[in-house]
Specification:
The complex is a heterodimer of chains A (265) and B (307). Chain A is of the alpha/beta class and 265 residues long. Chain A contains six helices and 16 strands. Chain B is globular and about 50 Å long. Classes of the chains: A alpha/beta (265), B alpha/beta (307). The structure holds flavin-adenine dinucleotide (FAD), flavin mononucleotide and FE2/S2 (inorganic) cluster.
């Protein structure tokens, strides 16, 4: 029998839930046992109360897990009914979370320098990885892209995690490079003085596809955290399929982090 | 301690209780083993599998709707051989613990159903029964399901019946049910599973595109439960073979409605997604309801609906 998902149902309590940017909230939940079991890049599936007509959980990455405090930090964009409902949850509110889901980042053995590229609300799983790299003393640089300055999150947090360069880009030019963050990423990857052997990315698919191609050119291994519409999050429904060179693979079990060269973008 | 005997007869099988799982919502069973003891259930029904693997449809394959969801998975499956290799050992063990393992058979044409069922018959000695999913799009018929007409459904059943002595069930599309049910009974079906998801559409009005990768998808969930109860009741009026009720079962009372409408068995579907141990809870709730009815066997309540 294949290995079933490590996910279990855990109770959680909201500690804080506040806006940190335009339509982006930082949610801290207390779920002590789960906080100890999470690996960077895995995901959670939250039941958000308040709508009897909504029957599925909401899959979300996490930006940090504190095993000592038993807390998990989630950053989410309010994009529809479910995330609006999540934004209504007040400190002290309780519900359940299914996790950990899937498998996370696999930093290659002997990695000497990494490049992290996050677009929009793709920041949380990448930030989580940054903290792991920082703790392991592996140097890394970061490119963050967002639609506009007021929707760009994580710049300071990446610096706190020990990032070297943190390059920003906005679609409207209101902060950093005017355009996509793939442009500064390309400059860094082509810079002969920075020899990256690992690239990690999460964000819109066209961005990740471009980063995967650039990494391949630079002979760096590349992982991408891929989002799909998920019904279960533990391998039972096949709604989360990602096309790979080895056929369809479920994002919730084989991902959400994939070898970017395996994904058919 | 319950005083109600929950065992039921279904299509020649003795099930320890009437709770089954809907194909496509319960994987191959092992996905749930860490959430609850799957061998508590009377039966499980596995994801529809074909003679060869199917890749399924492009993304997005799912969208949530009020009171349910729509999917366009397109019956992605590992093929019978892949399924046996991956899950055969687990399913054989489950069957040995007295939970019936119903293997769903997928195909795009009568020939493909035959090919798949022959493989199942050969490779799955542990399977308790087979369920033909005649709702798959039939390529030769321009995409309409083989099971959408009495003639088409009967043709598949007639071709498949000689392949196995084990119980053969048919998962019915929500169309022309009583007449198709009679045609299937005449061709030797042992039982009917009613209903498959109902075709629906969900349009993103901002982009004017479907919320799925295809114009339509299969609707599941409590929003279709009253329709499914009505359809189960109509099929039970039309045929003598037993029926498994499926559609929007979230609680023991939802399951009880199917039993009262005439179903011998009830499948839990998408309820298992958000709550992986839903089938186990629903079993407990169904048992409590049966006890509240003052019967000693739940089978006394099958079809006990009074108008
Ligand atoms: C593994 C994984 C990790 C994720 N991590 C985060 C995260 O850390 N922060 C965050 O803000 N969001 C994250 N998401 C996306 C998040 O799940 C969706 O934004 C959320 O479910 C939208 O729900 P809604 O009801 O508010 O929106 P809906 O009303 O359902 O939809 C609004 C819009 O969001 C899109 N959407 C809905 N569900 C998803 C989904 N599962 N994946 C991608 N887009 C979706 C829809 O296509 C639509 O355009 C993640 C998704 C996955 C699969
Ligand atoms: C993601 C998904 C996949 C499904 N796959 C199948 C399938 O392979 N074969 C089948 O007969 N029905 C399939 N169904 C339909 C269910 O078995 C069931 O008939 C339907 O969902 C109604 O029950 P529910 O409302 O309890 O979910 C699928 C449903 C869902 C949600
Ligand atoms: S979300 Fe159900 S299989 Fe991945």
């Amino acid at each position: 029998m294949p290995t079933p998902s490590p996910a279990r149902i855990h109770d959680f309590t909201v500690v804080t839930n506040e806006p940190i940017a335009q339509d982006i909230y930082a949610l801290r939940i207390a779920a002590p046992e789960l906080a100890r079991r999470l690996e960077p890049g895995q995901f959670l599936n939250l039941a958000v109360p308040g709508n009897a007509m909504s029957l599925l959980r909401i899959p979300l990455s996490f930006a940090a897990a504190d095993p000592d405090e038993g807390t998990i930090d989630i950053w989410y964009a309010v994009v529809g009914e479910g995330t609006e409902r999540l934004a209504q949850m007040q400190p002290g509110a309780t519900s359940t979370v299914l996790g950990p889901g899937g498998h996370g980042w696999t930093v290659p053995e002997g990695c000497t320098r990494a490049l992290l590229v996050a677009g929009g609300i793709g920041v949380p799983p990448v930030l989580c990885l940054a903290r792991q790299l920082g703790a392991a003393g592996i140097p890394f640089d970061v490119c963050i892209g967002a639609a506009t300055a007021s929707a760009l999150v994580g710049a300071d947090a990446f610096k706190d995690a020990g990032a070297g360069a943190v390059l920003l880009a906005t679609d409207d030019g209101s902060l950093g490079h005017y355009g996509f963050c793939t442009v500064p990423a390309e400059q860094l990857l082509r810079d002969a003085d920075r020899h990256y052997d690992y690239v990690a990315t999460c964000g819109p698919e066209p961005m990740m596809a471009k980063i995967a191609a650039l990494a391949e050119e630079a002979a760096a291994s590349c992982e991408a955290s891929v989002e799909r519409m998920m019904s279960c999050g533990f391998g039972a429904c096949a709604t989360c399929a990602v096309e790979t060179v080895h056929g369809m693979k479920g994002a919730c079990m084989c991902g959400p982090v994939f070898d970017a060269q395996e994904v058919v973008w | 301690m319950s005083t109600v005997d929950m065992a039921v007869d279904f299509a020649g099988m003795k099930l320890k209780n009437p709770i089954n799982t809907a194909s496509g919502t319960f994987g191959f069973g092992w996905q749930f083993q860490n959430f609850f003891d799957v061998s508590r259930l009377g039966a499980i029904t596995t994801k529809g599998s074909a003679a060869e693997p199917w890749p399924g449809n492009p993304k997005p394959r799912m969208t949530e709707v009020r009171g349910g969801m729509m999917n366009s998975v397109g019956l992605q499956n590992p093929g019978v051989r892949g399924m046996v290799e991956e899950s055969g050992e687990y399913l054989a063990d489950l069957a040995s613990k007295g939970t019936a393992v119903i293997c769903q058979v997928a195909g795009h044409s009568t020939e493909e159903y035959v090919a798949a069922l022959e493989l199942f018959e050969e490779l799955c000695p542990w399977a308790s029964a087979f369920e033909l999913n005649v709702s798959c799009p039939n390529i030769a018929a321009g995409g309409a399901a083989c099971g959408s007409t009495p003639e088409g459904a009967a043709e598949v059943m007639r071709a498949c019946r000689p392949i196995t002595k084990r119980p053969l069930l048919v998962k019915m599309a929500p169309v022309r049910l009583p007449e198709i049910a009679r045609a299937l009974e005449a061709e030797g079906a042992d039982g009917l599973t009613v209903i498959n998801s109902i075709p629906g559409m969900a349009i993103d009005v901002h982009t004017r595109r479907s919320k799925l990768s295809k114009p339509t998808g299969g609707l599941s969930g409590p929003l279709l439960h009253p329709i499914a109860v009505r359809m189960v009741w109509e099929v039970c009026q039309a045929v003598d073979i037993p029926v498994c009720g499926v559609g929007g079962v979230m609680t023991g009372e939802d399951a009880a409605e199917f039993i009262l409408a005439g179903a011998s068995v009830v499948s839990v579907g998408m309820a298992s997604f958000a709550e992986p141990d839903a089938a186990s809870r629903i079993l407990d709730e169904l048992e409590a309801w049966a006890a509240s009815q003052g019967v000693s066997h739940i089978s006394e309540l099958i079809g006990a609906f009074e108008c």
